[in-house]
Protein backbone atom coordinates (compact mmCIF):
# COMPACT_ATOMS: atom_id res chain seq x y z
CA UNK A 1 0.00 0.00 0.00
CA UNK A 2 1.58 3.29 -0.96
CA UNK A 3 1.79 6.18 1.56
CA UNK A 4 -0.77 8.41 -0.14
CA UNK A 5 -3.31 5.63 -0.27
CA UNK A 6 -2.65 4.76 3.40
CA UNK A 7 -3.22 8.39 4.47
CA UNK A 8 -6.42 8.57 2.47
CA UNK A 9 -7.60 5.32 4.01
CA UNK A 10 -6.87 6.65 7.53
CA UNK A 11 -8.67 9.89 6.71
CA UNK A 12 -11.76 7.97 5.60
CA UNK A 13 -11.67 5.76 8.68
CA UNK A 14 -11.38 8.77 11.00
CA UNK A 15 -14.18 10.50 9.15
CA UNK A 16 -16.34 7.44 9.57
CA UNK A 17 -15.51 6.84 13.25
CA UNK A 18 -15.37 10.42 14.55
CA UNK A 19 -18.04 12.15 12.53
CA UNK A 20 -20.43 9.41 11.48
CA UNK A 21 -20.29 6.77 14.25
CA UNK A 22 -19.51 8.93 17.35
CA UNK A 23 -20.91 12.21 16.03
CA UNK A 24 -24.15 11.03 14.48
CA UNK A 25 -25.11 7.38 14.99
CA UNK A 26 -24.10 6.91 18.66
CA UNK A 27 -24.16 10.55 19.78
CA UNK A 28 -27.18 10.46 22.02
CA UNK A 29 -26.43 6.96 23.40
CA UNK A 30 -22.84 7.99 24.24
CA UNK A 31 -24.09 11.15 25.97
CA UNK A 32 -26.69 9.20 27.90
CA UNK A 33 -24.09 6.60 28.91
CA UNK A 34 -21.66 9.20 30.27
CA UNK A 35 -24.40 11.12 32.03
CA UNK A 36 -25.21 7.94 33.92
CA UNK A 37 -21.63 6.74 34.40
CA UNK A 38 -20.52 10.15 35.67
CA UNK A 39 -23.87 11.00 37.26
CA UNK A 40 -22.35 11.19 40.75
CA UNK A 41 -19.93 13.91 39.55
CA UNK A 42 -22.44 15.87 37.50
CA UNK A 43 -24.90 15.75 40.39
CA UNK A 44 -22.33 17.37 42.70
CA UNK A 45 -21.88 20.24 40.21
CA UNK A 46 -25.63 20.77 40.19
CA UNK A 47 -25.85 20.65 44.00
CA UNK A 48 -22.94 23.11 44.28
CA UNK A 49 -24.65 25.50 41.85
CA UNK A 50 -27.90 25.28 43.82
CA UNK A 51 -26.07 26.02 47.10
CA UNK A 52 -24.24 28.95 45.47
CA UNK A 53 -27.63 30.12 44.14
CA UNK A 54 -26.03 30.51 40.72
CA UNK A 55 -29.33 30.01 38.88
CA UNK A 56 -31.00 32.87 40.77
CA UNK A 57 -28.05 35.14 40.00
CA UNK A 58 -28.22 34.32 36.27
CA UNK A 59 -31.98 34.84 36.32
CA UNK A 60 -31.87 38.22 38.06
CA UNK A 61 -28.67 39.62 36.56
CA UNK A 62 -28.73 38.07 33.07
CA UNK A 63 -26.12 36.04 31.16
CA UNK A 64 -22.55 36.46 32.40
CA UNK A 65 -18.99 35.76 31.27
CA UNK A 66 -16.73 33.46 33.29
CA UNK A 67 -14.81 36.34 34.95
CA UNK A 68 -18.07 38.13 35.84
CA UNK A 69 -19.61 35.02 37.30
CA UNK A 70 -16.47 34.06 39.24
CA UNK A 71 -16.33 37.55 40.74
CA UNK A 72 -20.04 37.53 41.55
CA UNK A 73 -19.79 34.12 43.27
CA UNK A 74 -16.54 34.98 45.07
CA UNK A 75 -14.68 32.11 43.36
CA UNK A 76 -11.36 31.74 41.57
CA UNK A 77 -11.88 31.61 37.81
CA UNK A 78 -10.52 28.10 37.25
CA UNK A 79 -12.73 26.27 39.79
CA UNK A 80 -15.68 28.33 38.56
CA UNK A 81 -14.90 27.13 35.03
CA UNK A 82 -14.77 23.54 36.31
CA UNK A 83 -18.21 24.01 37.84
CA UNK A 84 -19.58 25.47 34.60
CA UNK A 85 -18.17 22.58 32.54
CA UNK A 86 -20.30 20.19 34.57
CA UNK A 87 -23.39 22.38 34.37
CA UNK A 88 -23.03 22.80 30.60
CA UNK A 89 -22.62 19.04 30.12
CA UNK A 90 -25.72 18.42 32.21
CA UNK A 91 -27.74 20.92 30.19
CA UNK A 92 -28.63 23.12 33.16
CA UNK A 93 -26.74 26.13 31.78
CA UNK A 94 -26.10 27.14 28.19
CA UNK A 95 -23.29 29.20 26.70
CA UNK A 96 -23.85 31.75 23.96
CA UNK A 97 -21.18 34.13 22.67
CA UNK A 98 -18.99 33.56 25.73
CA UNK A 99 -21.80 34.13 28.26
CA UNK A 100 -23.45 31.60 30.54
CA UNK A 101 -27.22 31.64 31.00
CA UNK A 102 -29.99 29.49 32.51
CA UNK A 103 -31.87 26.96 30.41
CA UNK A 104 -35.68 26.96 30.63
CA UNK A 105 -35.56 23.92 32.93
CA UNK A 106 -33.02 25.43 35.36
CA UNK A 107 -34.96 28.70 35.50
CA UNK A 108 -38.17 26.86 36.37
CA UNK A 109 -36.58 24.49 38.88
CA UNK A 110 -33.80 26.46 40.57
CA UNK A 111 -34.01 30.23 40.01
CA UNK A 112 -35.51 32.27 42.85
CA UNK A 113 -37.69 31.00 45.65
CA UNK A 114 -41.14 29.45 45.65
CA UNK A 115 -42.99 26.29 46.51
CA UNK A 116 -42.61 24.81 43.04
CA UNK A 117 -38.81 24.84 42.95
CA UNK A 118 -36.62 21.73 43.20
CA UNK A 119 -33.89 23.17 45.41
CA UNK A 120 -34.89 21.37 48.60
CA UNK A 121 -35.09 18.06 46.70
CA UNK A 122 -31.50 18.53 45.50
CA UNK A 123 -30.39 19.23 49.10
CA UNK A 124 -32.20 16.06 50.24
CA UNK A 125 -30.30 14.06 47.62
CA UNK A 126 -26.98 15.68 48.56
CA UNK A 127 -27.16 15.61 52.35
CA UNK A 128 -29.24 12.51 53.00
CA UNK A 129 -29.35 10.15 50.01
CA UNK A 130 -26.00 10.50 48.25
CA UNK A 131 -23.61 8.62 50.57
CA UNK A 132 -26.01 5.83 51.54
CA UNK A 133 -26.67 5.01 47.88
CA UNK A 134 -23.04 3.91 47.53
CA UNK A 135 -24.13 0.88 49.60
CA UNK A 136 -26.72 -0.26 47.05
CA UNK A 137 -24.95 -3.46 46.03
CA UNK A 138 -24.91 -4.65 49.66
CA UNK A 139 -28.57 -3.72 50.00
CA UNK A 140 -29.50 -5.69 46.90
CA UNK A 141 -27.51 -8.72 48.07
CA UNK A 142 -28.77 -8.64 51.65
CA UNK A 143 -32.29 -7.28 50.96
CA UNK A 144 -32.00 -4.61 53.65
CA UNK A 145 -31.28 -0.89 53.86
CA UNK A 146 -27.50 -1.07 54.42
CA UNK A 147 -27.25 2.62 53.45
CA UNK A 148 -28.97 3.62 56.70
CA UNK A 149 -25.73 2.73 58.52
CA UNK A 150 -24.30 5.95 57.03
CA UNK A 151 -26.66 7.91 59.30
CA UNK A 152 -25.83 7.29 62.97
CA UNK A 153 -28.54 6.63 65.52
CA UNK A 154 -31.41 4.40 66.55
CA UNK A 155 -34.30 3.05 64.49
CA UNK A 156 -34.61 0.65 61.58
CA UNK A 157 -35.91 3.22 59.09
CA UNK A 158 -34.70 6.57 57.85
CA UNK A 159 -37.89 8.16 59.22
CA UNK A 160 -37.19 7.06 62.80
CA UNK A 161 -33.46 7.70 62.66
CA UNK A 162 -33.67 11.16 61.19
CA UNK A 163 -35.70 12.50 64.12
CA UNK A 164 -32.44 12.62 66.15
CA UNK A 165 -30.86 14.91 63.52
CA UNK A 166 -32.91 18.14 63.44
CA UNK A 167 -30.88 19.63 60.56
CA UNK A 168 -31.36 16.53 58.40
CA UNK A 169 -35.01 16.24 59.43
CA UNK A 170 -35.62 19.80 58.26
CA UNK A 171 -33.86 19.13 54.93
CA UNK A 172 -35.97 15.98 54.57
CA UNK A 173 -39.31 17.61 55.44
CA UNK A 174 -38.59 20.66 53.25
CA UNK A 175 -37.97 18.41 50.29
CA UNK A 176 -41.05 16.26 50.99
CA UNK A 177 -43.07 19.46 51.15
CA UNK A 178 -41.59 20.67 47.85
CA UNK A 179 -42.37 17.37 46.16
CA UNK A 180 -45.83 17.17 47.72
CA UNK A 181 -46.79 20.72 46.76
CA UNK A 182 -46.19 19.82 43.14
CA UNK A 183 -48.15 16.60 43.31
CA UNK A 184 -50.92 17.13 45.83
CA UNK A 185 -52.77 19.71 43.81
CA UNK A 186 -53.50 16.83 41.41
CA UNK A 187 -55.12 14.94 44.24
CA UNK A 188 -57.16 17.92 45.37
CA UNK A 189 -58.32 18.68 41.80
CA UNK A 190 -59.02 15.29 40.34
CA UNK A 191 -60.25 13.21 43.29
CA UNK A 192 -63.78 13.87 44.49
CA UNK A 193 -63.85 14.81 48.18
CA UNK A 194 -67.30 16.43 48.07
CA UNK A 195 -69.00 13.58 50.00
CA UNK A 196 -66.18 13.11 52.50
CA UNK A 197 -66.18 14.50 56.06
CA UNK A 198 -63.00 13.50 57.85
CA UNK A 199 -59.77 12.61 56.07
CA UNK A 200 -56.86 10.94 57.84
CA UNK A 201 -53.57 11.29 55.98
CA UNK A 202 -51.50 8.31 57.11
CA UNK A 203 -47.81 9.29 57.14
CA UNK A 204 -49.01 12.75 56.15
CA UNK A 205 -45.70 14.45 56.98
CA UNK A 206 -45.88 18.15 57.73
CA UNK A 207 -49.47 18.37 56.52
CA UNK A 208 -48.84 19.81 53.05
CA UNK A 209 -51.26 17.37 51.39
CA UNK A 210 -54.08 18.10 53.80
CA UNK A 211 -53.61 21.86 53.51
CA UNK A 212 -53.89 21.63 49.71
CA UNK A 213 -56.99 19.47 49.92
CA UNK A 214 -58.68 21.70 52.49
CA UNK A 215 -58.00 24.73 50.34
CA UNK A 216 -60.21 23.22 47.62
CA UNK A 217 -62.58 21.40 49.98
CA UNK A 218 -62.91 23.61 53.09
CA UNK A 219 -65.83 21.58 54.50
CA UNK A 220 -63.41 18.74 55.40
CA UNK A 221 -61.78 17.91 58.71
CA UNK A 222 -58.24 16.61 58.39
CA UNK A 223 -55.79 14.66 60.51
CA UNK A 224 -52.19 13.82 59.91
CA UNK A 225 -51.16 10.51 61.50
CA UNK A 226 -47.36 10.40 61.75
CA UNK A 227 -44.37 10.02 64.08
CA UNK A 228 -44.18 12.47 67.04
CA UNK A 229 -41.43 14.80 65.77
CA UNK A 230 -43.17 15.08 62.39
CA UNK A 231 -46.53 15.85 64.05
CA UNK A 232 -44.90 18.83 65.78
CA UNK A 233 -43.93 20.18 62.35
CA UNK A 234 -47.44 19.53 61.01
CA UNK A 235 -49.05 21.43 63.92
CA UNK A 236 -46.75 24.43 63.34
CA UNK A 237 -47.54 24.28 59.63
CA UNK A 238 -51.32 24.17 60.22
CA UNK A 239 -51.05 27.06 62.66
CA UNK A 240 -49.11 29.28 60.26
CA UNK A 241 -50.92 28.32 57.05
CA UNK A 242 -54.58 27.89 57.95
CA UNK A 243 -55.18 28.35 61.70
CA UNK A 244 -58.98 28.31 61.41
CA UNK A 245 -59.18 24.99 59.55
CA UNK A 246 -60.20 21.82 61.38
CA UNK A 247 -56.80 20.20 61.26
CA UNK A 248 -54.99 18.05 63.80
CA UNK A 249 -51.87 15.93 64.01
CA UNK A 250 -52.11 12.58 65.79
CA UNK A 251 -48.92 10.92 66.92
CA UNK A 252 -48.46 7.23 66.33
CA UNK A 253 -46.55 4.45 64.70
CA UNK A 254 -48.62 3.29 61.74
CA UNK A 255 -47.19 -0.24 61.84
CA UNK A 256 -47.87 -0.76 65.55
CA UNK A 257 -50.71 1.54 66.60
CA UNK A 258 -54.42 1.66 65.84
CA UNK A 259 -55.49 4.13 63.17
CA UNK A 260 -57.47 7.17 64.41
CA UNK A 261 -61.25 6.79 64.71
CA UNK A 262 -63.95 8.58 62.75
CA UNK A 263 -62.40 8.86 59.28
CA UNK A 264 -64.37 8.24 56.12
CA UNK A 265 -61.24 8.63 53.98
CA UNK A 266 -57.75 7.28 54.68
CA UNK A 267 -55.08 8.66 52.38
CA UNK A 268 -51.76 6.95 51.72
CA UNK A 269 -49.77 9.53 49.76
CA UNK A 270 -46.24 8.68 48.63
CA UNK A 271 -46.37 6.20 51.43
CA UNK A 272 -47.00 2.57 50.51
CA UNK A 273 -43.84 2.63 48.38
CA UNK A 274 -41.81 2.76 51.60
CA UNK A 275 -43.12 -0.57 52.93
CA UNK A 276 -43.22 -4.23 51.84
CA UNK A 277 -46.35 -5.66 50.27
CA UNK A 278 -47.11 -7.56 53.49
CA UNK A 279 -46.87 -4.35 55.54
CA UNK A 280 -49.03 -2.53 53.00
CA UNK A 281 -51.68 -5.20 53.18
CA UNK A 282 -51.80 -4.77 56.98
CA UNK A 283 -52.10 -0.98 56.64
CA UNK A 284 -54.89 -1.25 54.08
CA UNK A 285 -56.70 -3.82 56.26
CA UNK A 286 -56.42 -1.50 59.27
CA UNK A 287 -57.94 1.29 57.19
CA UNK A 288 -60.68 -1.03 55.92
CA UNK A 289 -61.58 -2.07 59.49
CA UNK A 290 -61.90 1.55 60.66
CA UNK A 291 -63.91 2.83 57.68
CA UNK A 292 -67.71 2.97 57.56
CA UNK A 293 -69.50 1.41 54.59
CA UNK A 294 -68.88 3.71 51.61
CA UNK A 295 -65.61 4.93 53.14
CA UNK A 296 -62.54 5.07 50.95
CA UNK A 297 -58.81 4.41 50.99
CA UNK A 298 -56.88 6.53 48.51
CA UNK A 299 -53.43 5.38 47.44
CA UNK A 300 -51.70 8.28 45.69
CA UNK A 301 -48.20 7.89 44.33
CA UNK A 302 -45.89 7.50 41.38
CA UNK A 303 -46.59 3.94 40.25
CA UNK A 304 -44.87 1.53 37.95
CA UNK A 305 -46.63 0.61 34.71
CA UNK A 306 -48.20 -2.83 34.77
CA UNK A 307 -45.70 -3.88 32.09
CA UNK A 308 -42.92 -3.12 34.65
CA UNK A 309 -40.85 -1.10 32.17
CA UNK A 310 -41.14 2.44 33.52
CA UNK A 311 -41.57 5.27 34.20
CA UNK A 312 -38.09 6.64 34.95
CA UNK A 313 -39.28 7.80 38.38
CA UNK A 314 -39.86 4.16 39.39
CA UNK A 315 -36.24 3.31 38.64
CA UNK A 316 -35.08 6.33 40.64
CA UNK A 317 -37.34 5.76 43.65
CA UNK A 318 -37.08 2.01 44.22
CA UNK A 319 -33.31 1.88 45.02
CA UNK A 320 -33.83 4.65 47.59
CA UNK A 321 -36.55 2.70 49.43
CA UNK A 322 -34.54 -0.52 49.32
CA UNK A 323 -31.10 0.92 50.05
CA UNK A 324 -31.92 3.63 52.58
CA UNK A 325 -35.47 4.49 53.60
CA UNK A 326 -36.79 1.17 54.92
CA UNK A 327 -35.15 -1.70 53.04
CA UNK A 328 -38.56 -3.21 52.31
CA UNK A 329 -40.27 -0.89 49.84
CA UNK A 330 -40.19 -0.08 46.15
CA UNK A 331 -42.32 1.67 43.54
CA UNK A 332 -44.98 -0.97 42.93
CA UNK A 333 -47.19 -1.21 39.86
CA UNK A 334 -50.74 0.06 39.60
CA UNK A 335 -52.12 -3.48 39.39
CA UNK A 336 -50.16 -4.52 42.49
CA UNK A 337 -51.77 -1.69 44.50
CA UNK A 338 -55.20 -2.60 43.13
CA UNK A 339 -54.61 -6.23 44.11
CA UNK A 340 -53.61 -5.24 47.66
CA UNK A 341 -56.73 -3.09 48.06
CA UNK A 342 -58.96 -6.00 46.97
CA UNK A 343 -57.11 -8.40 49.26
CA UNK A 344 -57.66 -5.96 52.15
CA UNK A 345 -61.43 -6.23 51.58
CA UNK A 346 -62.24 -3.23 49.36
CA UNK A 347 -64.78 -4.28 46.74
CA UNK A 348 -64.78 -1.34 44.37
CA UNK A 349 -61.28 -0.38 43.23
CA UNK A 350 -60.74 2.36 40.65
CA UNK A 351 -57.57 3.66 39.01
CA UNK A 352 -57.29 7.37 38.15
CA UNK A 353 -54.26 8.27 36.04
CA UNK A 354 -52.97 11.75 36.80
CA UNK A 355 -50.29 14.00 35.31
CA UNK A 356 -46.63 13.87 36.46
CA UNK A 357 -46.52 10.07 36.49
CA UNK A 358 -48.97 9.88 39.41
CA UNK A 359 -51.89 7.53 39.87
CA UNK A 360 -54.63 7.52 42.49
CA UNK A 361 -56.13 4.15 43.37
CA UNK A 362 -59.51 4.75 44.97
CA UNK A 363 -60.77 1.80 46.96
CA UNK A 364 -64.28 1.87 48.42
CA UNK A 365 -65.60 -0.28 51.26
CA UNK A 366 -68.95 -1.84 50.45
CA UNK A 367 -71.07 -4.39 52.30
C1 LIG B 1 -42.26 9.38 51.99
S1 LIG B 1 -42.88 10.33 53.29
C2 LIG B 1 -44.46 10.81 52.64
C3 LIG B 1 -44.96 12.08 53.22
C4 LIG B 1 -46.30 12.59 52.65
N1 LIG B 1 -47.36 11.61 52.75
C5 LIG B 1 -46.16 13.07 51.24
O1 LIG B 1 -46.96 12.73 50.38
O2 LIG B 1 -45.23 13.84 50.98
C6 LIG B 1 -43.30 9.09 54.49
C7 LIG B 1 -43.94 9.61 55.74
O3 LIG B 1 -44.26 8.49 56.58
C8 LIG B 1 -43.91 8.79 57.91
N2 LIG B 1 -43.62 7.55 58.62
C9 LIG B 1 -42.61 6.69 58.37
N3 LIG B 1 -42.67 5.64 59.21
C10 LIG B 1 -43.74 5.84 60.01
C11 LIG B 1 -44.33 5.09 61.06
N4 LIG B 1 -43.82 3.92 61.46
N5 LIG B 1 -45.45 5.58 61.64
C12 LIG B 1 -45.98 6.77 61.25
N6 LIG B 1 -45.47 7.51 60.25
C13 LIG B 1 -44.35 7.06 59.64
C14 LIG B 1 -42.70 9.69 57.79
O4 LIG B 1 -42.46 10.44 58.96
C15 LIG B 1 -43.06 10.52 56.56
O5 LIG B 1 -43.76 11.68 56.94
Structural shape:
globular
> How much helicity do the residues have?
40-55%
Q: Could you name the CATH class of the largest domain?
A: Alpha Beta
Gyration radius, rounded: 24 Å
Number of helices: 16
Give the low-pLDDT segments. Answer: none
CATH architecture of the largest domain: 3-Layer(aba) Sandwich
CATH superfamily of the largest domain: Vaccinia Virus protein VP39
Main sheet attributes: strand count, strand direction, barrel closure: 7 strands, mixed
Structural class: alpha/beta
**Termini, distance in Å?**
88 Å
Describe the structure.
The protein is an alpha/beta fold. The protein folds into 2 domains: 3-110, Winged helix-like DNA-binding domain superfamily/Winged helix DNA-binding domain (Arc Repressor Mutant, subunit A); 126-364, Vaccinia Virus protein VP39 (Rossmann fold), CATH 3.40.50. Helix content is 53%, strand content 13%. It is built from 16 helices and 9 strands. It has helices spanning 3-25, 27-37, 39-52, 54-61, 66-73, 77-90, 104-110, 119-129, 136-142, 158-161, 166-190, 208-216, 228-241, 277-290, 312-325, 334-343, and strands at residues 93-96, 99-102, 198-202, 221-226, 247-251, 265-269, 296-302, 348-353, 358-364. The protein has a 7-stranded mixed beta sheet, with helices on both faces. Strands 1-2 form a two-stranded antiparallel ribbon. Helix 3 (39-52) crosses helix 6, helix 8 (119-129) crosses helix 11 and helix 9 crosses helix 15. The longest helix is centred in the middle third of the chain and has 25 residues, at 166-190. The chain is globular. It starts with a helix and ends with a strand. The structure holds S-adenosylmethionine. The site of S-adenosylmethionine has 18 residues, from helix 11.
Amino acid sequence: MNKAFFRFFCFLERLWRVHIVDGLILRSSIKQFYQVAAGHILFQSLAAAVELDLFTILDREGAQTLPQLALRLGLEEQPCRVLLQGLLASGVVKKRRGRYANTIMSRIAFAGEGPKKMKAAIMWQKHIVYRPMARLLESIREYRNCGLEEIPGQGETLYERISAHPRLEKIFQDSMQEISVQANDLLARYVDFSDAHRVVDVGGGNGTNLLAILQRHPHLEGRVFDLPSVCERARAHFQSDNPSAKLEAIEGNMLQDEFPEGADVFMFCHLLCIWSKAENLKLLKKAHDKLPVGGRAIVFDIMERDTQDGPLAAAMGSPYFLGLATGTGMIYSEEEYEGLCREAGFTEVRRVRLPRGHTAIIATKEI
